[in-house]
Design brief:
Elements lengths: L10 H4 L4 E12 L2 E12 L3 E5 L6 H9 L6 E6 L2 E2 L5 H6 L2 E3 L12 H7 L17 H20 L15 H13 L5 E5 L7 H16 L3 E5 L3 H7 L2 E6 L2 E6 L1 H6 L1 H8 L5
Parallel strand pairs: 3-8, 3-9, 6-7, 7-8
Antiparallel strand pairs: 1-2, 1-4, 4-5, 9-10
Helix pairs in contact: 4-6, 5-6
């Protein structure tokens, strides 16, 4: 097979790279405050996209727009080509979008395993009547999602804690459980809001490793995070926000040396 000449374009060069998530001109205001002000972005499949910025920069508001908690006052969003701008949050989950929250939201009175099982609610493959009269299909489905729940607990290091009450877990374990529950929905796009908040050094390393494994397994990750060491180690692209606007977007290396970012957020001087 003949090799293409140097500098020649191939068929692969002609195929456009399609973003999994695209946003154009997003605006969200609360009274007179522009929490998100004309934000546009593209998040490519199988990448880790970080959003950083000072407190009050609009990071969590942007995440809430993407996940459907808030609706934008202007702008549009496409998920794999599907317009989700006005799609409610619960329907976005069915299109492959899941998230974790800055403030942990678990069913703390349920067991660790049952918290994961709850995440499979959109993936059941049984007729509705079998919830009342448990037939063979119900039992097959139950075995399937219990097995998958065990696999997810092993993934986040909680396999030995499956039957304890979720509220009795340490803070770091609860963080990992929330991630596992989000993964139970089988997302293509996982949004993570401050996942390293309150974690010790060992737990941050576990988180880093698992986020990288998600990327390897084809899950696209968007992470809002204050832990700059984590962001610079794991992100492929970084969006820096300030006062609701796009201050800068680039690779972690570009962010660290950009004078505007250094002055506004990271502190110090560029050598």
């Amino acid at each position: 097979m003949r090799e293409p000449a140097a500098g020649a374009r191939t068929i692969a060069d002609e195929i456009p790279v399609v973003a999994l998530l695209s946003a154009r001109g997003l605006h969200k205001r609360f009274g007179g405050v522009r929490a998100v002000d004309d934000i546009s972005l593209e998040i490519l499949r199988g990448t880790i996209f970080a959003i950083i910025g000072p407190n009050g920069a609009g990071k969590s508001t942007l995440l809430n727009l993407i996940s459907g908690v808030y609706r934008p006052h202007a702008g549009s969003m496409l998920l794999d080509g599907l317009d989700i701008t006005r799609t409610p949050a619960y329907r976005r989950v069915r299109h492959g979008l899941a998230r974790t929250f800055q403030k942990i939201r678990l069913f703390k009175h349920l067991s660790v395993l049952d918290n994961i099982v709850a995440g499979f609610h959109i993936r059941h493959e049984i007729p509705a009547w079998q919830y009342l009269i448990h037939g063979a299909a119900f039992h097959r489905d139950r075995i399937r999602w219990h097995d998958e729940s065990a696999r997810l607990l092993s993934f986040v290091g909680l396999d030995k804690r499956a039957h304890v009450r979720a509220g009795s877990l340490s803070y770091g374990e609860q963080r990992m459980l929330e991630i596992a529950r989000a993964l139970a929905t089988s997302p293509r796009l996982l949004l993570m809001d401050e996942p390293a908040a309150g974690l010790n050094a060992g737990e941050v390393e576990l988180l880093l490793d698992r986020v990288r494994m998600l990327r390897t397994n084809g899950v696209t990750v968007v992470v809002v995070e204050h832990n700059m060491d984590l962001v610079m180690q794991v992100a492929d692209r970084v969006l820096v926000m300030d006062y609701g606007r796009n201050l800068f977007e680039g690779t972690p290396e570009e962010v660290q040396v950009n004078p505007t970012v250094v002055a506004a957020y990271l502190g110090g001087e560029v050598p």
